[in-house]
Amino acid sequence: MITKRADETTSFIVMDILERAKELEREGKDVIHLEVGEPDFRTPEPIVESAIKALRDGETSYTHSLGLLELREAIAEHYYNKYSVNISPEQILVSSGTSPAMLITFHTLLESGDKFILSNPYYSCYPNFIIGAGGKVDYIDVSEEDGFEYDVDKIKRAITPRTKGLLINSPSNPTGIIYSKEKLNEISNIPLQYIISDEIYHGLSYSEDDREHTILEYCDHAIVVNGFSKTYAMTGWRLGYLIAPKNLIRPLQKLQQNYFISANSFVQRAGITALKNTESYIKSMKDTYNIRRQYMIQRLKDMGFILKVEPRGAFYVFVNAKQYTNNSKDFAFQILNDIHVGIAPGIDFGSGGEGYLRFSYANSQKNIERALKRLEVYLKKIN
Ligand SMILES: Cc1ncc(COP(=O)(O)O)c(C=O)c1O
């Protein structure tokens, strides 16, 4: 018998869609992928070069469990240069992606039965991290009418003696919203023990008014989780980190030592290059995403999808598709099977996402155009 915990872990539906898409591709079908949150760009060349060099130089051993000091220094410098916050390398733990950073964070913070607040919709994996660590989730519904943003009064009303904290994700997956500095400040003043801020989409915001802000500008009781997957087009490299108050680092480090030992050594070396030497590459990817974003927003609206909250960050458009479906999972599989276009169903992001679809523009303009054309013809046919 498997555990109740394992049994109750929900599947990451978008990965199920992707796996079905791969099956169709093996049958020779031309599938267009707008489902996965994965950059279509190759990792910038200087990053690749420095990993190769590190391998050639024999950097193939375990590193310090907190990560290479040079990388932790580069992360601290990055946060200082970008947000003017002073953090020390002793507050940083380098992990094999943002996901493991979240795993050890929740295992460190939650006693069995402790609660953590999440927005609904949310990034699909969050509840499983919390529940897997023995915690419970209190969801705060966020709707397109409120710009998909947390209502601070609702959060305050949801706090119980067992509430350990709240998670924010800005720029957000799936909605693409970005919290203003005023809102971040307001959230950071809510009396909570901890705020976890998932900053993985920092670097991917498209409006001049959206200078990104880290939660660390506003409070000290925050844990930032971040990674290289999205902004640096490094999903398969598996590199991330967390920034935490100093008193949490030793407990986090013990979990890291036991579960993962350390992040990959040569990948960490490449991470230093990513932070220091890729500005022009990042800018060029971001400019390209922005062109696709604008195109996709307009096209989806023209096709009749409702989009009250235009995404300003990350690489997703989250549209209301309730005129077509109340079962986004079946609908996404139906679209995949019938016209070979992969889309993430809103239900993957919680009950608040039902009736929505998430389109990723991390694919070429040409493929986006082809996919949306197929979808347009299809929707006319089935209506
Ligand atoms: C909001 C969010 N956080 C974390 C992750 C996982 O990132 P990583 O590849 O660093 O584990 C993702 C990936 O899609 C994400 O969208």
Describe this structure in words.
The chain is an alpha/beta fold and 383 residues long. It folds into two domains: 4-43 and 280-382, Aspartate Aminotransferase, domain 1; 45-277, Type I PLP-dependent aspartate aminotransferase-like (Major domain) (Aspartate Aminotransferase, domain 2, 3-Layer(aba) Sandwich). It has helices spanning 4-8, 13-26, 45-56, 69-83, 98-109, 126-132, 152-158, 181-188, 246-259, 265-276, 279-302, 328-339, 365-382, and strands at 32-33, 92-95, 115-120, 136-141, 163-169, 194-198, 222-227, 240-243, 316-320, 341-342, 344-345, 356-360. The longest helix has 24 residues, at 279-302. Bound molecules: pyridoxal-5'-phosphate. Residues 37, 97-99, 123, 169, 173, 198, 200, 227, 229, 235, 240 line the site of pyridoxal-5'-phosphate. Pyridoxal-5'-phosphate (PLP) binds at residues 37, 97-99, 123, 169, 173, 198, 200, 227, 229, 235, 240.
What is the topology?
Elements (H helix, E strand, L loop, with lengths): L3 H5 L4 H14 L5 E2 L11 H12 L12 H15 L8 E4 L2 H12 L5 E6 L5 H7 L3 E6 L10 H7 L4 E7 L11 H8 L5 E5 L23 E6 L12 E4 L2 H14 L5 H12 L2 H24 L13 E5 L7 H12 L1 E2 L1 E2 L10 E5 L4 H18 L1
Parallel strand pairs: 1-10, 3-4, 3-5, 5-6, 6-7
Antiparallel strand pairs: 2-8, 7-8, 9-12, 11-12
Bound molecules: pyridoxal-5'-phosphate (PLP).
